[in-house]
Amino acid sequence: MLNTQWLHTFITLVEVGHFTQTAEKLFMTQPGVSQHIKKLEEQAGTPLIKRIGKRFELTPAGQQLYQYGVKRQEDERQLLSQLLADDPFSGECYVACSGSLAMFLYPHFLSHQQNYPAISIHLESAPNHRIIEGIKSSQFDIGIITHSLDDPYFEQTQIGQEALCVVVPANYPDEDLDKESLYSFGFINHPDGKHYLQQVHLANFSDSHFDFNKITKSGYINQLNQILLPVSKGLGFTVLPEKAVSQFSYQDKIKTLPLPNTVMQELYLLRKQHRPLPKRYQHIIETIIQLLSQD
């Protein structure tokens, strides 16, 4: 790495054009200026100036180093200016949440980005463990998870809750939640399907034992916006958060069975403890809290 102080002395010398005046400008002695130039030449491994009496000329290497040094100083000035500015309407925002919440929140984020094109929203749908690891590794700055953490590494805020829905075809004959007929009808599984169904089972059926292997499976899909498609065609049932259900295009083809005991998922906004976020996250966080606390 080039010594910053020596490089600054060299740039000043080139711009002033005189050793004595450079020394006066930098509050140094003339031998001190000469010493800085000599050390910089040793560091660069090549002569930077050619003395001609009381004046000097830059060598090709000196000219190249001067251009580099000027650009480096300008880059540093711009960086410091940007750090001090912290523009709330410019920069990248990295957010992670479940697929259902991503479908619900993303249009609102895009509206904000339309109003302020210098904002760039990076939204990833992921399960809880992936969100937690992503925040820990700084891949995401904020995330939404469905359980609290006993970990001082994170700051978490409860921001709302979301119901799990048992979704069946619109022509499903039973309005009541009958376990035997439902489980034999066939389950459309998905990455969180087993977990969601287990929560519904434990909250609504008298037997606490849940054996996923004994439930008829009618299919599996990992694309959130496609999970309800086989349900709408009468091929089975599934369990999804209510926001995923509300986003489905063919509402007349599905219905939600009433549950004696509604299962609610708590929603927590997660971020690193003691890590200040840029001002551009303020609107994103306010939007999330406003939309999810309404439920």
Automatic annotation (TrEMBL):
Q: Does the keyword Transcription apply?
A: yes
Specify the species: Photobacterium rosenbergii
**What GO terms are given for molecular function?**
DNA-binding transcription factor activity; transcription cis-regulatory region binding
Q: What is this protein called?
A: LysR family transcriptional regulator
Q: Which PANTHER family match?
A: HTH-TYPE TRANSCRIPTIONAL REGULATOR, TRANSCRIPTIONAL REGULATOR LYSR FAMILY
Family label: Belongs to the LysR transcriptional regulatory family.
Tell me the keywords, alphabetical order: DNA-binding, Transcription, Transcription regulation
UniProt-listed InterPro entries: LysR_HTH_N, LysR_subst-bd, WH-like_DNA-bd_sf, WH_DNA-bd_sf
Q: Which SUPFAM superfamilies match?
A: Periplasmic binding protein-like II, Winged helix' DNA-binding domain
